[in-house]
Structures are given as structure tokens and as C-alpha cells.
Write a structure and sequence with these properties.
- The protein is globular, with a radius of gyration of 16 Å.
- The protein is α/β, with parallel strands linked by helices and about 180 residues long.
- It has one domain.
- The protein contains six helices and six strands; from the N terminus they run αβββαααβαββα.
- A six-stranded mixed beta sheet has the order 1-2-3-4-5-6, sandwiched between helices.
């Protein structure tokens, strides 16, 4: 499987996982996904029989951490960078990485009427609880294309989903 095929497979897996967790939590049907071409969000589905697009992102921390987690070969330089990163407290890396990811996705434009951002936490050092405890420090851009932003707490969805935006949804998580 090449890198492009692997990326699409990860996106589909994350979309299916999110849809299953969302449906279980809220009892609203989410069905039939398909992959989109660039300029559109990664995946489209039906949300209660209405079309909804999902932009999928994976939260690793850094490119080097992603390579390590995905089992890719590290060069001497990237190995040294990984060791340096691992000396930085995980919570600091979490907040930096999550803010950077949301900010980068917020700058994109999508050819769609409705899009949600779904972020899957792929870093085993971070938990849903860590993310929730740092929620108040997240920087949500004033302008972004997302109707809602969700986070899957871990690669397998065992810790469920967490609403990051809009504020009305996030208030439910805090209470």
C-alpha cells in the first residue's frame, strides 16, 4: 500500500469510527461514506438522510512522531528529533499540536455546504482526559469553515468522542 492509499484508508477508518460513535451517542443515523477528490472534504456521508462532509485529521504531535507511530523508518536526524520531542512534556506537545492542526485546517476552503472537522487522536501518550483538561487553552480561530469540530479520543475510539466546537456542544462536555 502506498502512502496515498494508506492515508485514504486511515481517513475511511476514522470516518467510520466517528460515525459509529456519534450514532451510538446521539441516536442519529450516519451512513454511506465515500471518498472525495481534493477541494472537497475527505469523506461524505448521510447524516439523518442529509448530505454531510467530513474533513478528517489525525493528531500525532509532529511529523517525526507520526513517522514513529506509523512504524516508518527514521533517519539519524529524525531519530534525534524524536528523542528531543520525547523530553518535552506530552501535555505541552498536545496543546501545541492540536492548536496547530485546527489552525491549519481553518485556513482551508471547501467546496461544500456543510463540513465537520473530525480529529482522531493517534498519539498513545494523550488521552481524552488530557484533551478535556486542556480544552480551555485551545485556540479556536475566529473564522473557519466548520459547522462542528469533533475529536475521537484515541485510535480505536475506546474513549469516545469529544466536541471541541461549537461552544454549546463543548459546554455539554464540561458539565
Amino acid at each position: 500500500m502506498n502512502a496515498s492509499e494508506e492515508k485514504i484508508a486511515l481517513e475511511h477508518e476514522a470516518a467510520r469510527l466517528f460515525m459509529r460513535l456519534y450514532e451510538k451517542r446521539f441516536g442519529i443515523s450516519m451512513r454511506h461514506i465515500w471518498h472525495n477528490e481534493p477541494a472537497r472534504p475527505d469523506v461524505s456521508c448521510y447524516y439523518d438522510e442529509q448530505k454531510l462532509d467530513l474533513e478528517i485529521a489525525h493528531l500525532y504531535g509532529s511529523e517525526v512522531e507520526a513517522m514513529h507511530i506509523l512504524g516508518r523508518a527514521l533517519t539519524d536526524n529524525t531519530h534525534k528529533e524524536l528523542l528531543s520531542l520525547l523530553r518535552t512534556p506530552p501535555q505541552h506537545r498536545l496543546l501545541t499540536a492540536l492548536n496547530r492542526l485546527i489552525s491549519n485546517k481553518a485556513e482551508k476552503t471547501y467546496n461544500t455546504d456543510r463540513v465537520w472537522l473530525v480529529i482522531r487522536n493517534a498519539n498513545p501518550l494523550w488521552t481524552r482526559r488530557d484533551i478535556l483538561s486542556h480544552y480551555q487553552q485551545l485556540h479556536m480561530p475566529a473564522q473557519h469553515p466548520f459547522e462542528q469540530i469533533w475529536l475521537i479520543g484515541d485510535m480505536h475510539g475506546n474513549s469516545g468522542i469529544l466536541a471541541l466546537y461549537p461552544p454549546a456542544l463543548t459546554a455539554l462536555e464540561q458539565g
